[in-house]
Amino acid sequence: MSQTFPYAFIRGEITPIENATVPIQCKAFQYGLGCYTGMRAHWDGENLQLFRLEDHYKRLKNAAEKLNIYFPYDFPKFSETLKNFIKKNEVKEDAYLRINLYCASTQMTPRFNNPDDDLAIYLISLKDYFNSSQALNVRISDYIRIDNDMIPIEAKSTGSYINSALAKTQALSEGYDECLFLNREGHVCEASGANLFAIKNNTSTTPPLSDNILNGITRDTVITLLKNELNIETQERTILPNELTEFEELFFTGTAAKITSIASINKAPLKSSDTPTAQKLQSLLDNTFRNKLPQYSHWLTPVY
Length: 304
Ligand SMILES: Cc1ncc(COP(=O)(O)O)c(C=O)c1O
Description:
Blueprint: E1 7-10, E2 13-16, H1 27-31, E3 34-43, E4 48-51, H2 53-67, H3 75-88, E5 95-102, E6 118-124, E7 136-144, H4 161-173, E8 178-182, E9 195-200, E10 203-206, H5 217-230, E11 234-236, E12 249-254, E13 258-265, E14 268-269, H6 276-289, E15 300-302
Parallel strand pairs: 7-8, 7-13, 10-11
Antiparallel strand pairs: 1-2, 3-4, 3-5, 4-15, 5-6, 9-10, 9-12, 12-13, 13-14
Helix pairs in contact: 5-6
Bound molecules: pyridoxal-5'-phosphate.
Residues 38, 190, 193-195, 214, 216-219, 253-255 line the site of pyridoxal-5'-phosphate (PLP).
């Protein structure tokens, strides 16, 4: 179970989580107007290390610009706000932060460009999002991924997760663990909240951003680790659904998902259940998170 830490940040203040509420009239509640990022912090034995803080900030800032959400935080202010908030919660273990920019306006019209958008943050002690000991049975969704010209995909907008929720619910209700979206052209995209990688002949393949996927920070991390540490190049190219079970390994990547292997697609198992690349990556990622690989310490921001 994920435990929520006692304090949240909302309306510019750290406050007990039970006071971090919004009016039901607000546009975030009525229309899902907002955007967010999910970031992990890891205890390295001596300090709590935020993973790729500046990249999360940049993605959130870009999302705010794309959606016209007011976000008056430069990076130093954002970083200080987060650190103070984490310190107040006295976090000394692995944790997951939800950093949300939401439209607090209670005016009825569904529109952006509101003066009273707000930053809201809470923290949980999320260990594993998926059961990490088991590879996933995945269903290709009947729901098509939202196109970039409907909602900017890189914005990680709150409301667009209805698309994810529908696909995930369909998959779960049919006994699968996770969904996999195709886009309008029938190209493989991503899961409800994770990017996809495929391994074959010592090469890695992942869908390109142009196929309507989120520019995952773990995706970028994995491309770097594969190249530098495992000597595996990643091709960013369109993947078609009928190719999927031809790969030796398939796995999802994400801040919550970390590295999670896939066992089958639409009940068709992969040829092998071995997941050597995913296992090596998981260990590399964990060592990166915990400051055991000095070449990646620039990705870490200590809190204390
Ligand atoms: C739709 C979607 N794709 C991919 C990802 C993975 O992105 P990241 O690695 O930045 O967490 C997420 C999670 O944030 C997501 O919600």
